[in-house]
Amino acid sequence: MGEIERLLPGTKVSDWSATAITANPGLIPVAVAAYFGGGNPSTAAVDKFAFSDDSRTTLGTGLSSSRFYLAGAANSAVAAYFAGGSGTTTIDKFAFPSDGRTTLSTGLSSARNYLAGAADSGTAGYFAGGGASLATVDKFAFPGDGQTTLGTGLSAGRYELAGAANSGVAGYFAGGYASARVATVDKFAFSDDSRTTLGTGLSATRQRLAGAANSGTAAYFAGGISPAVDTVDKFAFSDDSRSTLSTGLSTVRYYLAGAANSGVAGYFAGGYDDAVDTVDKFAFSNDSRTTLSTGLSSARFGLAGAADSGTL
Q1: Mapped to the 3 state alphabet, what secondary structure does 108-157 carry?
Q2: Please, which pLDDT band fits residue 311 given cuts at 50, 70 and 90?
Q3: What is the pTM (predicted TM-score) of this model?
Q4: pLDDT for the residue 70
Q5: Domain at 33-308, CATH homologous superfamily
Q6: Rounded CA separation 186/171 (Å)
Q7: φ and ψ of 23, to 5 deg
Q8: Domain ranges across the chain
Q9: So what's the pLDDT on residue 34?
Q10: SS3 content of the chain, % helix, strand, coil (to 5)
């Protein structure tokens, strides 16, 4: 079966089948693609990986400016957001399925790099930490994109952390650097934005890692430096317990980015040791890893990821 571009009224559907109809009653939006934007060497490029076959295209319109050490999050089936980086407050929004870009009139509450993103799809996106060890968590309400800053931020100011979310339940912000590298995982309940800190953190202190989530099941935090590792830690949403995958990344690296086709697979792209174009894919059915034959359009690190994973 070919790619279903979008199951919405008036939208072209290529290679329709009975399987697609059964899997998507009521024309429910289906998972489409992972997006990886920006990075160093400084670029505005946004690469798109179609979930149907993992093929890569590069958007004709990239970020509004070249930047790196930014963060990504998505209102799945609606839009991807790429925030901050290169000392800016900028938030670029890419609408699904057209991939048209706009730039929010209200950006981050302060200009910063090294932040992390996560989203309660359908409700709000969150961008946390970064800068000079900030504890700030900015919240952007969907669909209007109005910005507020949470009264309770991270448990400690830190940067070079990673984010992932159990949509509808909670966001997780892991690792990073405060006065030293940390293994901390902070959890923000989406019901009231209250914060708790998990009793079990990462398997080791590390910064410059990446996150992705199989919403409803588990969050994955991959790579980072402490020193550079190929480790992938998995946090089960049922009880927030941590395990470490027996198969890690294909190479040790840091400053990578994550995105997920929830229910199917997580993708970890790019990174440094030296700069790579590698994209590793972890199947959520058994956490096995493959490496895509087609990687990023250029080797880079300090990029950000987000995904159109359909309706979560």
Answers
A1: CCCCCCCCEEEEECCCEEEEECCCCCCCCEEEEECCCCEEEECCCCCCCC
A2: confident
A3: 0.91
A4: 98
A5: Kelch-type beta propeller (2.120.10.80)
A6: 8
A7: -75, -15
A8: 1-30, 33-308
A9: 98
A10: 0, 40, 60
